[in-house]
Amino acid sequence: MVFLRILVALIGWFVGFYLGASLLDVSTVTPLSNQVYVVLLLGTACAILGWLGAPYVTVRPARVIANRIQATSAGDLIGGALGAGFGLMLGLFLAFPLSFLPGDLGRFAPIVGAAILGLGGAAAGAIKRSDIAAFVRDLRAGRRDHVGEERALLDTSVIIDGRVADVVKSRFIRGTLVVPRFVLGELQHFADSSDGSKRERGRRGLEMLAKMQKEATVRIELLDVDPPGIGADNKLVSLARQMSVPIMTNDYGLNRVAELQGITVLNLNDLAKAVRPVVLPSDELTVRVIQEGKEPGQGVAYLEDGTMVVVENGVRYQGSEVAVTVMRVLQTVGGRMIFAQPKSDVAEGRRPRAASH
Fold it and tell me: Could you tell me the pTM of the whole model?
């Protein structure tokens, strides 16, 4: 860092000295004239500015560029590089005829033209990154039907939930699961919390990450970026937009915010609803009644996916398993509810107690 400051300060001193010498006619003055002092003062001022501004023209831009490159997908980099290369090649072909333009125009037009074509090619390549990256992967794999690697950002809620580890183990998820640094930091903050509930959640999340890395069914990438923004959710949405990748979450608020901004969301709750067993009237189930229901005589049980089963005349089976017959299925905003009767009651022709649900 000190070396860079000294280097930039020296460059600033030479630039200031050169500017001062160009503005003033130093060839006709004595060494002790005021003009010499002005030139030296200008050089010193530029050196001081170079020393103070060195981090802003070296380290910080390099850090920003490194973060952007790390947050950019391979498709973006490949597309941008190929587009820039094509644009620069086109600029070289145009440089020769442009050099015949009169005066200074002939000297600067080839450079400006190459820069414009290079930047334009990079932008076009980044926009068409998916097509270009897919084509490059096809060439590398030796077949046109090759499916490219998929990436998805994980948020804190889906890691703590733990079901993603089971889905990964079942090989329904392919590609790379990306965990940004700020998400990992949030898990660590929870794990170190004085609150017992938060501490347990944080440790569970870290254990789930370690489990997925150990099983190695998919690649877990720890992304060392921290985009600007307040709160992990805002940072995650910003990063997903930059990388053009979906977010995997169980958080309803993050789900809605991301969808409103056009970002694809992979919600494990939606997946669970899609694959849960279909239950129809007259189906038979075996459930464990765990508590008394809202109405007299009712018992309440739950299926493995969390669906509530209201067992009419089932309170007498509380604490034990009972075979029931499904009478009706009620779909609500919060999910579905199943109303059932003990199988023995159905066989005996008993009718459930009238109740308002």
Answer: 0.47
